[in-house]
Amino acid sequence: MPPEQTHLPRGIRNNNPGNLNFSHQPGALPEPGPHGRFAIFSTPYDGIQALQKQLILYYQRDNIRTISSLIAKWAPPVENNTIAYCHSVASSLHCTSDTLLAPFTPASLAALTNAIIHYENGQNPYGTLALQSAQELLDSPR
Asked: How open is the CA angle 7-36-10, to the nearest 5 degrees?
């Protein structure tokens, strides 16, 4: 890894800004080494799209409808400060942790994605990439 990249947060280095665990996502590789548990994606776009697919899955399959329940599943309290995470994401979305999530639109999915990226990495260098990915995921025929 080039020295200028060693100071970047793991999620950004791995093109996995949501810090998804490796679970054989299409195109993903596991982190190397005995303690590697996170996925590595080829591009930031691929990592953002995997993050968004997981959010959609939580909404559709698991019937998760609030920020608090979503973050509790995304970042379980056994290894995260879930309360602070919920408050940060809700604040970014200008709502409360218990506000009901409506079905995703490209804009709402991008906003949630960006809030998660910022909390996970302390920064979000991706500009409009989350919106581009959300539009592709939600606007394309399935």
From this structure: 25
Cα angle 118-121-125, degrees, rounded to a multiple of 5: 65
- Helices (H), strands (E): how many in the chain? 6, 2
Per-residue tokens: 127: 């500009």
The three-state secondary structure class of 39 is: strand
Q: Which domain holds residue 110?
A: 3-139
Domain count, the chain: 1
Residues 6+ positions from 80 with CB-CB distance below 8 Å? none
Place of tokens 């890894």: 1
Which runs of consecutive H residues, i.e. helices, occur in 61-128? 67-74, 82-92, 106-121
Q: Tell me the torsion sign for CA atoms 65, 67, 68, 69.
A: positive
Length reported for the chain: 142
- Over the stretch 29-58, which tens digit does the pLDDT of each residue have? 999 988 889 999 999 999 999 999 999 999
